[in-house]
Amino acid sequence: MIDLKGIKGIIFDFDGTLLDSLGMWKNLDIEYLNQRGISKPADLGHAIEGLSFNETASYFKNRFSIEESVDEIVSHWHTYIEEVYPSLPFKASAKNFIERRKKEGYKLAIATSNSKPLVKMALEDKMMERFFPIIVTSDDVGEGKPSPNVFLETAKRLQIHPSDCLVIEDTYMGVLGAKRAGMKTIAIFDSHNKERWDKTLKLADGTVTHFKQLEAMF
Question: What is the pLDDT of residue 87?
C-alpha cells in the first residue's frame, strides 16, 4: 500500500485520467490520416504517448510527410476536437474525489500533454475549473512526457516540493515522467492503455482501476 503521509499536493493528468477521452483521440488520428489516404500504423499510439500537442503535430508532419505546417495541423485538430470535447464525460467518481480532496486542504493542479484551451473548455463545461487554478501543459515547458519538466513546473507553481506531490496518471510515459520528477505516483487504469498496463503496474507506487478504489486510499 502506498504511503500518502506528507502529501500536500495532487497533480492530475487530464485525458484518460480525469476525462474519458482517449477513444476520441484515437478516432481523430484515424480520421485525420484516412482523409490523406494514410492507414494508421499499429505503433502510432505508443509512438506519440506523452508527446505535447505541438510535438505530436510535428511527429505527424515528419512521419507521414504532411504538407501542412505544424500550426495548420494543430488548428485542424482543434476544429475537430472543439465539436465533441466538452461533451465527453469525467471518469466515474472523479468529481467526488476532487471535491473531497479540495475540502481536505490538498492543493490540486493539472499537468497535461493536451493544449490549455481544450482543458479549460472541458473543465468549464463540467463546472470544475475552480478546483484547478494551476494547469501546466507540456508545451509550456517545451517537452512532453516522460520528461519530468511538466511535473516539476507544476510543483513549482504549487509551491510544493516534488517529494510532497502525488501524481495520478493513466499512461506509462506519464508515470515515468512523474517518477523522474521525484514524485509519488498512482496509475489509474484506462482500457485504451491496457497493452502497457502490466509495465505500468511495475513502475507506479500504487495502481487502481477506478476512482472509488483510489478514494479508499485516503
Answer: 83
Q: Output the DSSP codes for 134-178.
A: -EEEHHHHT--TTSSHHHHHHHHHHT--GGGEEEEESSHHHHHHH
pTM value?
0.88
**Are 206 and 185 within 8 A, CB to CB?**
yes
Residue 7 one-letter amino acid: I
Alpha-carbon span 40 to 46, nearest angstrom: 12
Judge contact between 165 and 155, C-beta under 8 A. Answer: yes
Q: CA-CA distance, 81 to 104, in Å (whole number)?
A: 34
d(CA 57, CA 182): 29
CB 29 within 8 A of CB 22: no
- What lies within 8 Å, CB to CB, of 146 at 6+ separation is 50, 173, 174, 176, 177, 180
β-bridge mates for residue 57, sequence order: none
Cα–Cα distance, 163 to 142 (Å, whole number): 23
- The per-residue pLDDT for 52 is 79
Q: Are 77 and 60 in contact (CB under 8 A)?
A: no
**Could you tell me the mean pLDDT of each successive run of 10 residues in the chain, 218 residues long?**
91 95 82 88 85 86 92 86 85 96 98 92 93 95 94 98 98 96 96 86 95 94
Q: Of 192, 190, 198, 165, which is closest to residue 179 (Cα–Cα)? A: 165
* The three three-digit cell numbers of residue 212, written as one number: 472509488
